[in-house]
Write a structure and sequence with these properties.
single chain; Rossmann fold; 4 helices; binds pyrazine-2-carboxylic acid; binds zinc ion
C-alpha cells in the first residue's frame, strides 16, 4: 500500500470534533474529507497532525470580549483578529480527534493556539510568528522536503499552514478534495486556493497525487 516515501509527509490539519458537523465551529461538509483521508493515510510513510488547542480564556473567543459576536473583527494584542465561538478548548471532547480517524501511524501531533494573546492558524507558527510549534524542526530532522496538506479549514488553518510550509522551503501540495472551507464570506475558499497558487503551492485533487510524488 505504501507508495510515497518518507521524504514526503502527509500533514493533517485540525481534524477535530469542533470543526466537524455538530461541532462548535463546524466547517460545512467537513466530514466528507474523512473517507478520503482514510484512503490517503496508508499511502504515506510519514504522517503528522496539528491540533487546535486553546485555553478557555483564549482571546479569539467572542465570549471573552463582552458585547461582541462571532465573526466580528477586533484588535488582539496588536493584531487584527476574527472572533470565533468557543472551540477546541484543551482537554474537551470538541478538541479531540474523531474515532474514525486512524491515529495509529502518526509520528507526532503539534498543538497550537495555547497562547491566549495570539491566535495560531498555521501549524508552524502563531499569527505573530513568535511561537514555534516545532513542526518545522521535526520535518527537517526527519528529512521531509515535501508536504501534502489536508484538513480543516481551507480558508484558515490549511491556507496559513500551506503558506508557511512553502515559505520555509518545503514543496507544498494541498489536496483539494480533502479539505473544506468555513466560507464566512461565500468566496473565501475559492480565494484561499487562488492565494495559495500565487504563493507557489500546488493545489490538486488527491486522485492526481501520483503524478507529483
Ligand atoms: C481554525 C478558526 C479558528 C482552523 C482554528 O482550524 O481553520 N479556524 N481556529
Ligand atoms: Zn482556533
Amino acid at each position: 500500500m505504501r507508495t510515497i516515501n518518507s521524504g514526503t509527509a502527509l500533514l493533517l490539519v485540525d481534524i477535530q470534533h469542533d470543526f466537524l458537523p455538530g461541532g462548535a465551529l463546524a466547517v460545512p461538509h467537513g466530514d466528507e474529507i474523512l473517507p478520503i483521508i482514510a484512503s490517503l493515510q496508508p499511502q504515506f510513510d510519514h504522517i503528522v497532525a496539528t491540533q487546535d488547542w486553546h485555553p478557555a480564556h483564549h482571546g479569539s473567543f467572542s465570549t471573552n470580549h463582552p458585547g461582541t459576536q462571532p465573526g466580528q473583527q477586533i484588535d488582539l494584542d496588536g493584531l487584527s483578529q476574527i472572533l470565533w465561538p468557543v472551540h477546541c478548548v484543551e482537554g474537551t471532547e470538541g478538541a479531540d480527534f474523531p474515532d474514525t480517524l486512524d491515529r495509529s501511524r502518526w509520528k507526532a501531533v503539534f498543538k497550537k493556539g495555547q497562547n491566549p494573546k495570539v491566535d495560531s492558524y498555521s501549524g508552524f507558527f502563531d499569527n505573530a510568528r513568535r511561537g514555534d510549534t516545532g513542526l518545522r524542526t521535526h520535518l527537517l530532522l526527519q528529512g521531509v522536503r515535501r508536504v501534502c496538506i489536508v484538513g480543516l479549514a481551507l480558508d484558515y488553518c490549511v491556507k496559513y499552514t500551506a503558506i508557511d510550509a512553502r515559505s520555509l522551503g518545503f514543496e507544498t501540495l494541498v489536496l483539494t478534495d480533502a479539505t473544506r472551507a468555513v466560507n464566512l464570506q461565500p468566496e473565501d475558499g475559492k480565494r484561499a486556493l487562488e492565494e495559495m497558487k500565487a504563493a507557489g503551492i500546488i493545489c490538486l485533487d488527491s486522485k492526481n497525487l501520483t503524478r507529483y510524488v
